[in-house]
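Running this now, will post back.
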Amino acid sequence: MLYQLSHFRIRRSRRNDPSISPRNPNDPTECGTAGAAPLYPSAMPPKKTAKKTLPKRAKTTGGLTAEERAALRETMLERKGQGEGEAAVLAKVATMTPADRTLAQRIHAIVRASAPELTPKTWYGMPAYANKAGKVVCFFQDAAKFKARYATFGFSDEAHLDDGNTWPTSFALTKLTPADEAKITALVKKAVS
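Update: finished.
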């Protein structure tokens, strides 16, 4: 090990002096180590360093976009218990676009009438309805939240909608007809049964 360190010192000084030709570290006659094993085995390929390029992110504060920061803020308020109750859900519905607001108000009325045992609360900034254990059973996702072309009424894994090996867990909503309302009513009743 002592030889290798001194060799690197010599080699570094030779690199800086252009009048001295570089020595081959694998040739024992050039390094003055006749009979010794070569410093670098010839079977090893030279080391290649890969250039790492990081993906460019949008210029934001703290690495999050404004929408992500708002969603995080809403989630933290919900965890502190400020998203509980009908008032919080109705306040959230009031901030929606007119088309989403109309759908959310109808869904809210359907769920409250079909399953009065479910407690309204906000869940990730969306109106949701939880069982007695506090687990969300169903929720309404407005179209504007994720810039989608339709709103969604969905069910979590707490809902008892199992039907064979596959069953739907969310439904796209563009408008509600009386037939659609009857279908949602039946699904909500089944989910809490």
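Helices lie at 2-16, 28-31, 66-79, 86-94, 98-114, 178-192. More later if anyone needs it.
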